[in-house]
């Protein structure tokens, strides 16, 4: 469950879009590949630390519950609900509830990235890490409540670390693979053109995963 949900959560439009923007912008500035990789890894590292810290906080909070299985079921239902919101957004784009990075945060992230310095890249990673949670927090909360019901605290933290490594893995792959300016721009353009379709698949998988957790995992 940790591996599947970690990889699923890693297909996150918020984090993908911003790292592609970072790469494309750095290539337009004619930065060296070493500099691009350094800032890219700082960005990914900040997302990992922020998301891991959020997970630890939630895990600590849910452990106070006297009925961990009820909390796990609530997490699964939350996952289903957020998946439905993604599906609704695909079919009804004007639906008022959207699981996106807030526009203000997106504008601030863009401004930080355009400065292309180490401190601003760290700040952008921090901001994206915080704003990524509303995009896919349902998956994260559901797996944390499941860990709370099925493992000790020590094992829960270990699984949480594994989850977050898988969460940032595609970002690391993108950072290493996108080795030229044209590829970075093409990938960023593809992401923009297919973002809505990605959200459709994302929502469908969230609903299916939440249902599977209720039926087969949480017993």
Can you put this structure into words, describing what you see?
There is one protein chain. The protein has helices at residues 2-10, 13-28, 33-62, 68-91, 103-115, 118-150, 153-177, 181-217. With 219 residues, the protein is mostly helical. It is globular and about 55 Å long.
> What is the H-and-E element order?
HHHHHHHH
Question: What distance lies between the first and last C-alpha atoms, to the nearest angstrom?
Answer: 14 Å
Radius of gyration: 18 Å
How many strands, which pairing sense, and closed or not: the largest β-sheet?
none
Tell me what portion of residues adopts beta-strand conformation.
under 5%
Give the fraction of residues assigned to helices.
Answer: over 70%
Give me the secondary-structure category: mainly alpha
Report the count of strand segments.
0
Put simply, the count of helices is: 8
Task: Estimate the mean pLDDT confidence.
Answer: 79
Poorly predicted sequence stretches spanning 5 or more consecutive residues = none
Oligomer: single chain
Shape label: globular
């Amino acid at each position: 469950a940790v591996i599947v949900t970690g990889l699923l959560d890693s297909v996150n439009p918020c984090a993908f879009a911003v790292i592609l923007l970072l790469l494309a912008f750095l290539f337009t500035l004619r930065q060296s590949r070493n500099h691009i990789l350094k800032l890219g890894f700082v960005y990914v590292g900040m997302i990992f630390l922020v998301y891991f810290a959020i997970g630890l906080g939630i895990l600590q909070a849910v452990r106070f519950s006297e009925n961990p299985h009820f909390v796990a079921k609530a997490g699964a239902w939350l996952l289903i609900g957020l998946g439905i919101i993604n599906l609704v957004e695909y079919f009804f784009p004007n639906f008022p509830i959207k699981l996106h990075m807030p526009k203000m945060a997106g504008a601030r992230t863009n401004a930080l990235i355009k400065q292309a310095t180490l401190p601003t890249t760290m700040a952008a990673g921090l901001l994206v890490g915080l704003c990524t949670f509303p995009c896919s927090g349902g998956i994260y909360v559901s797996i944390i409540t499941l860990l709370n019901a099925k493992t000790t605290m020590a094992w829960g933290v270990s699984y949480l670390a594994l989850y977050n490594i898988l969460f940032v893995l595609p970002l690391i792959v993108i950072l290493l693979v996108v080795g030229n300016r044209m590829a970075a721009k093409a990938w960023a353009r593809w992401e923009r053109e297919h973002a809505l379709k990605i959200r459709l698949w994302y929502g469908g998988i969230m609903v299916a995963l939440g249902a599977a957790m209720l039926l087969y995992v949480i017993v």
